[in-house]
Amino acid sequence: MRHHPGSLPLEPEAAARRSRSEWRALATLLPYLWEFKGRVALALAFMAVAKLANVGVPLVMKEIIDALSAERALVALPLALLLAYGLLRLSTTLFTELREVVFAKVEQRAVRRIALQVFRHLHSLALRFHLSRQTGGVSRDMERGTRAITSLLGYALYNILPTLIEISLVAGILLAKYEIWFSAVTLLTLGGYVAYTVVITEWRTQFRRRMNEEDSRANTRAVDSLINYETVKYFGAEAHEARRYDENLQRYEGAAIKSMTSLSLLNVGQSSIIALGVTLVMWRATQGVVDRSMTLGDLVLVNAFMIQLYIPLSFLGVVYREIKQALADMERMFRLLAENREVEDRPGAPALDARNATIRFERVSFGYDHRRQILAEVSFEIPAGRTVAVVGASGAGKSTLARLLFRFYDVASGRISVNGADIRDVTQGSLRAAIGIVPQDTVLFNDTIFYNIQYGRPSASTEEVIAAASAAHIHDFIASLPDKYATNVGERGLKLSGGEKQRVAIARAILKNPHILVFDEATSALDSESEQAIQMELDRIAAGRTTLVIAHRLSTIMAADQILVLERGRIIERGTHRELLEAGGAYAAMWALQQQEQAAEVPG
Q1: What is the pLDDT of residue 9?
Q2: What is the distance between the alpha carbons of residues 108 and 127, in angstroms, rounded to a whole number?
């Protein structure tokens, strides 16, 4: 019988490794706090003062009760003690709030810096990582990880450390003022409570972890389904999608039920241990009052101390569980930081000088998977200011050339150079800044048309954006919309047609004004009439620039300086349009086939 991977319990060794990894995540957090060590120290000082004041309240209460005892001659109201009681009560709240005021900046800055670092790191990872991961799950990991940092810091500073300080102070006072029996019972009760809580919570953590895994899977599936809304509708697959989503929700439900029901066992055990400890301490204190070794004030003091310890301890199970969960969530997020970049700048790498760029592919071989080669010994040159086109069947490796030029991946062997510089020896930022692309599948941000065009050069003025849109023959369309350039394009640009999205991409490339241009089947989404208009504009912006054109329609590349025919990752023909037609090879056959298809489309 096959089990779902999320439902299998961890082996003891694997669980121990994961636990160590989670605590290492806590060590990773410390440098972010060290930046504000002064604030951290001040917050800890305020916390200590607040706890001293809190412990002082029962001590003053004892003195007030003893002062009011009938056995003593009451001369006047103990005003000084009453004033001290009020000041201690106020100090407890005041210094607790001061602690939070001082620490707030430390906490939020740490969250901000870590979230930004993870976000930047994700953008620095190779395309291979993003193609193999589902965005919904990664975003959920980031969301839970940053929330976990806030939780962890809050629990540490507001629950764990204050409780430890208070336990130490209470145990010390009980040991100094009374027989060792009180301290021993108190510490044994606390020790038993903590041990029981840790053991049961560790056991329960597997259910919470499973909940998280199923939550991420369900979220990933929901995001993927909603992004592909049109595809779902095309195939009438709403019920199928709901069923797949519900499968994850069912597994989440099962883990959640186990987590919630096992909580009852934890609560009952905790209450039993505390009840036993408090009863023993109160029995001994009552006995002391009866045999006059303790006063009524001592009884109140011991009772108050036990209540003060019981209140924070009653939340220890929740706190420990949340801390463990926060560590697990943090560890999951920091694991993203540990992902190998694969494509990385070399130390001290210079910026690329892409002016008058000459591009060379020298015996380039590459495969996304070592078991399947995509390119094999590919060599060609694009002289400065010239246009080279690549054609071939789907899967021949045409778009891979563009991805390698952008250095989304590093070549397996050979080299790609721009003006003689290996692109692996220059910064990725300068390389990509020099290249503009109009891709085959244009994906837009869920923002305005203006934002999506200006993305080509964020510093561009409104006039420059409009000029780029006009050059891409999309300005008139935008002007006809009710909200004009402020029109939102929707998720992945779904509110625009394929041709409109393509024109936005062309406008974006025009605005970037790069030294190198890549057209990856840039007119594939356009009709014949629009294609001719756009092609003229593409030819105009390509003039004087080093241009790589990846084409399906051969009519768009007739004017290219050189045409390469790619088949199964190898260049089988090269030459101008005329030369290749005269050669009568693969290119000539493709040309003839497309001419026949075009003739068939024209009404007879």
Answers
A1: 45
A2: 31
